């Protein structure tokens, strides 16, 4: 990208018009236009002001390409939001960290699977005649250990994740992952040790059973209007307060 293209991209990302940037720099819109069209360039002092206004580093403009470890404008905005959440909602920051760790582990696993497939295709293509099939009889889903039917279990992260084969039926194509029940608060339908199938592709309504992250712990509960409901009369419900951090991780659609 040219200097002008980078300047235009950074200005638009910051939500500024040419006239607005010109006003902040005490110059004219024509000057900004000339910079963006590579007719001329600002001096170094002006460039430093531009960097401060658009929240970019000088290297963003001076290097021919943006290094892999250079933070982009959109990434910088995410960093600012994360710092704000960390300061004002520590539990929210913990949830973000947990989700990032989980998604990073998934991305790593997918990349490894991709590399392995490419390796197998390269090494076997010359000697194996692969016959096409209309449809595989099974598919693999992630299997987590576990969701609490009691006091709460932390599940987000790469630990305890395996691959579980399930029949490749139309119903099971909606299933995103499986998770093991720990505890007896959802008996008699869901007992300790059961493996439930969870879908993030279907709507969860009041009265449905879902997997919920409550302040970083995972539960299997019925979705109520003001609480998460246990089916075992001897177990307590989870009252939902405005201070709780609750994330629905999907609807329970069956058992393994």
| Percent range for β-strand residues | 15-25%
What's the average pLDDT? 79
Q: Please summarize the sheet with the most strands.
A: 9 strands, mixed
- Secondary-structure-derived class: alpha+beta
The unreliable regions are 125-134, 152-159
What does this molecule look like?
Helix content is 37%, strand content 22%. It is elongated. The protein is of the alpha+beta class and 256 residues long. The protein has helices at residues 3-13, 18-25, 29-36, 44-54, 58-62, 73-88, 90-124, and strands at residues 138-148, 162-167, 177-182, 195-199, 209-214, 217-223, 227-229, 238-239, 246-255. It starts with a helix and ends with a strand. β5 and β6 (217-223) form a beta hairpin. The chain contains 7 helices and 9 strands, in the order αααααααβββββββββ. The chain has a 9-stranded mixed beta sheet with strand order 2-1-3-4-9-5-6-7-8, with no helix packed on it. Mean pLDDT is 79; it is low at 125-134 and 152-159.
In short:
With 256 residues, the chain is of the alpha+beta class. The chain has helices at residues 3-13, 18-25, 29-36, 44-54, 58-62, 73-88, 90-124; strands at residues 138-148, 162-167, 177-182, 195-199, 209-214, 217-223, 227-229, 238-239, 246-255. A 9-stranded mixed β-sheet has the order 2-1-3-4-9-5-6-7-8, with no helix packed on it.
